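User: I'm curious whether this sequence folds into something compact or stays loose and floppy. Could you predict its structure so I can see for myself?
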Amino acid sequence: MTVYGYARVSTKGQDLEAQIQALHNENVEHIYQEKFTGTSTDRPQLQELLELLQKGDKLVVTKLDRLARNTKEGIELINQLFEKAVKVHVLNVGLLEDTSMGRFFLTTLLAVAEMERSMIIERTQEGKAIAKQNSDYKEGRPKKYTQYQLDEAMKLLETMSFAQVEKEMHRRGTKISMSTLKRESKKCKAQVNE
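Assistant: Here's the prediction. I'll summarize afterward.
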């Protein structure tokens, strides 16, 4: 029997370390890992692992939602593994068994995980709707620079090229892209010509 582990996080910025450590603590021999959103269908490491698993092997994951995106997919995936006689161990639940009770337990767990995800999305959307009522609200990522820094860059453009200003601002610890500099420069010229 070979013991495999699978670890996944939803965004590139998240850390897999806690999952990997938990899998190591269970003496997992081979760990497959990836950073893909739960809604992404392209999970090459998972696909490779599923093809590799054989009768008698064990698959270990920290939580069911690391393995499946929703209840339907989770049940299909676990059923595939059961058909191959692969043991499935979910650390926060235990060993899932290919029995009537095991399947019922699995369906219930996956439904709860899916409901939790949906509630998080709803709360996020509600929070966003409330935030949008604030006149200072701006959609998207916060800017890496202030208006003062942008004005400073515009002054530098009087004696430097766009590339030189970009480099100089970066040297000063402010990342302003070339496209932002050009856009701001065009905006300033338009205001002067008004």
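Summary: The chain has a mean pLDDT of 85. The radius of gyration is 25 Å.
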